[in-house]
Amino acid sequence: MEVTDDKSLAKAERKEKQVEKTAKISTEAKLVKLADKLYNLRDLNRCTPEGWTQQRAQEYFAWAKRVTGQIVGVNPVLEGKLNQLYEARNV
After folding, report:
1. Per-residue 3-state assignment (H helix, E strand, C coil) for 18-74
2. pLDDT tens digits, residue range 27-60?
């Protein structure tokens, strides 16, 4: 439940809550969050989903960086791979 969004909230509010609560979740949940964001960003980098503009993809990268920015020192390997993706996208 730590990494599950509250679907009763509006999308923008869910995304903001994810940024806010990430620093407070357990180490295990932080690892899941890092791995999930890495998978999603690699996939997005490989192929932009149908209906997404490049701007929307870039905004997702910026939001993901805000989320993962709350997780420092948990797993340097995953964090490093994420930072490489952010740098490649100039985020």
Report:
1. HHHHHCCCCHHHHHHHHHHHHHHHHHHHHCCCCCCCHHHHHHHHHHHHHHHCCCCCC
2. 999 999 999 999 999 999 999 999 999 999 999 9
